Every structure is written in structure tokens, then in C-alpha cells.
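Q: C-alpha cells for this one, please.
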Amino acid sequence: MRLLSRLAGVLGVLALAAPATAAIRVGAPAGCAVDPDCAPALARAYGIDVLPALVALAPGAATYRALRAGQVDVVVARTTDPEARDPDLHRLADERAATPVDVVAPILRRAALLDRPELEDALAPLGRRLSTRDLVALGLALRRGRPPADAAATVLARLRLSPVPTSGPPVRVLADPGPEGRAVALVAVGALRAAGLAARVSAVAPTPAAALRALERDQADVWPTRALALLDHLTGSRGTRGADLATGLDLLRGVLAAHRATALDARSARTRRVLLTTRSTAATLGLARVADLVRPELGLPLVEPVAAPAATDPGPLPPLAPGALGRSIAALQSSLVAIGYDPGPPSGAYGERTRRAVLALQEGAGLPADGVADDATLAAIERRTLGPAGPTTPGRCAATPPAAPST
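A: Here is the predicted structure, written as C-alpha cells:
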């Protein structure tokens, strides 16, 4: 009886995954069924259940070989795949933005950033200058059989980053799984070495949870990864739908605070999931948009689409505190300057100088002095900025400033 029960369970799983129940075959990575930016995203935005049509494919060139060979009709791909630019392929228009644009961002252990604030400037090329074209060039080098170190060297040359003599303990960089994950980690290592910091890839993190544990346990310092995919992982797909990149990064920083980590700014290296087919298949099956997959003759079961949750689902962000980064920190620093304190330039990094400025403000306002800009501290800043004499000019000291921190 136990054997029959187990056999029935296996048959049930096979029936769920068998592509024969649909007239269309969708090639996708093995984890598509549970990846928030894959099958769940299509169900959420379009009401399409693609599980019966899924065919597991290895990522990269193997996906495109299967598509061109007619083994699948549609593939789940990334905009940074070099093959995605083939003029013989057609991208299905995603009119409901089922999958958000993502960006590669450096995730840092907060204690490492406080101990070595130079990490922020050293990693700036990775977050702010690494572009989508650089990711395409990296992927193309890997597709041509070049090892991750050579692919990373190609990108570092594009960024004009060359190693210089290094000093200090090596910065430990985590890599995501696969050749692309290692290559991106090696680009981070190259950026650090170009800034005079010793660095090495210390480990490959098989999962986001493993990477965060390594950061929490002081086993690694830096982890370059896709920021909004990480936010999806940490929040159960809450918080990124409808959010722009800046909002998503701010939300991610708030969630990462519980893991004693933070995310640096990232702008240019953008990627997103897309559905591709060949132009001949698009013409034969009438596929111009993702919404065309709902047609009954394609055999995909339909489910009720759900509204995208608000971008604030993860809950209120924690107080602004040492180790935090982002535009909100730059705004805090500008406000402190405007009322006569010296947090340093508005870099967007909450370092020791900013903490001392907040401490001085708290002491002068009779607040608990802990160096954390909580709601009471922000209210005190607002009262001074909008006092009886009117607001002070941003970036300049007030007419009668309080004593600035001495150290």
C-alpha cells in the first residue's frame, strides 16, 4: 500500500509537469515554477498557468539551441543574454510588466563598510558604471568558452580598471552560482584591486540564504547579485511590483538591516526576464504579446490574476543608522549641514562622521544620544530647519549654528 501511495504521488507530479497537456512548450530554467520572476509572475499578471507547458532547460546557449531546434516554442530568457539580440528572434511584449527590471548591486556586510569606508568608493564602478552592455559582453565571452576570469577581464578593460599595488587584509567576495556569477564576482575583485584593496573570491553561495548567512557570520564582506531578485526572495515577492529601481533598492536596504548588511547604489547594469520565440513560430502561432498565450487553442490553464501588492508591503523601514546607504542618507546629511552640523559631504553613506553629527544634534536637543536618526531625531531636524526664522538654505549653516562636533 505504501508503494502504491508513493507511485501515485510520483505520477501526480509527472502529470503536473508534463508538457503534453498543453499545445505549446515553454522552455525555462529548472526553478521557474517557484522563481517569483518566472511562472508565478505570469500567473500573477496574466492569469496564465504555464506549469503544464514547462520544459526544463539549462540556462545560456542550451536554451537557444532548443528554441531554434523546435524542441520548445517559447523560452524564458534574460535581456542580457547575447543571443537575445538575434534578429531572428521575437520578444513577446510584456504589457503588464510581469517581471520588473533588475540591477546588479554590491551587497555589503555593514561592519565591513564601517571598518573600511573606502569600500564604497572602490565598488562604485560595479554599482554605477557597470552597464547592461558590459553584462552582455561578459555573457558573450562565456558563451565563447572563455573562463570566468577572462570574461571578467573583458569587462574590467571596458571599465578601464587596472590593478594597482594593494594593501590591507583581503576583501572577501561571494559569487553567485554558475560561470556568470563567478565572473561578476571577479569584476568586483578587479574593481577593489584597482582601488588598492586586496580582494579575492572567497566562496560560491549556492542560495541567497547561504550568502546572507556568510555575511552575518563575518565569513564574507561583499556579494554582487541581482538586487530586486534578492528583495523578492526576502519578502516573498512583496515590495518590488510597481516599484522603480530606486524604491526597490531603498526597500532592500531596509530588509537587509535585519541581516546586518546593506546594498550600495546601482544604476546601469539592468536585466529582466523576457519571453522569446522565433519569428516563424510567432507567425505560425500568432504570438506578438505575452497576453496572446491566454488563447484557448494553446491549452494553457487560466488562473485569476492578482493585483500587484503595494511597494511598502515589507513594512516600515528601520531608523537611519550607521552602515545605511542611499538617497535618504544623503538627504539626512544635507539637512544636518543646513542646520549647522558637519556630517561630511552628502555621500549617501551613514559613516562615523554622520553618526557623530547626529549624536551632537541629539545631545543639543535633549534626546537619547545613540547616533541613530530615529523619528524623534528627524522631527528635531525638521523643527530647526523650519523654525521661527524660516527654513535655512540647504547646504549652508544656519545663522546661529550649534557647536559642531569637535572630532
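A few notes: The CA atoms of residues 44 and 305 lie 5 Å apart. The first helix runs from residue 2 to 17.
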